[in-house]
Amino acid sequence: MGKILGMARLAVLAGALALTGCVTVENSLSANDIAAMKLTGVTVAYAPDAFVRWDDGIRAYAASKGIPDNSAIPTYTPEGKAYMQALLAPRIKAGVEQAMAGELNGTRPVRLELVVRHFTIVPAVQRILLGGTHDMTADANLVDARTGAIIIANPKLGAVMAGGEGPIGAAVQGVFTNGGETTVDRLAGIYGKTYRNWLLRKVI
Question: Is a pLDDT exceeding 50 seen at residue 38?
């Protein structure tokens, strides 16, 4: 049994790694190009086939429809998907904006447009039994705020956050979400820092 669970944990981790970090895009902007930019905003949209797995979003949708928590929840209807995506978008936006705050202070207005392809917050039950990682993958397009022209694109940029393994790991993960910062907020922040480090060529 232990061997099976160990193999399952490896499969979960391998799946997460396959979703992120597969595409390495070179940052072709010069230091002067970057210094001239001023970030005016971050937008969040979703790819047509975007996948979102987020239990809190499911529960929020159920509550909005008056559906008991222990009932079958039709979250993967177009309405359910749209509800969760709308609830999640401002959280991603806020996390990325916080990571980018104070970094681009030039005079050329630019905007960061994200197109989310995959967003997973691993459920607590799975983390206890199998472990797992939270992950986010999105296309990151830096555009000229005046014209909308793409300055530089980083498609399928990914970020991964450890989800905690076993009962103790899951409990520790819960501690980190206290004080107002949730797992969603932390994952969005990690994605923002990943993009920031790539754009500014910061060494982690």
Answer: yes
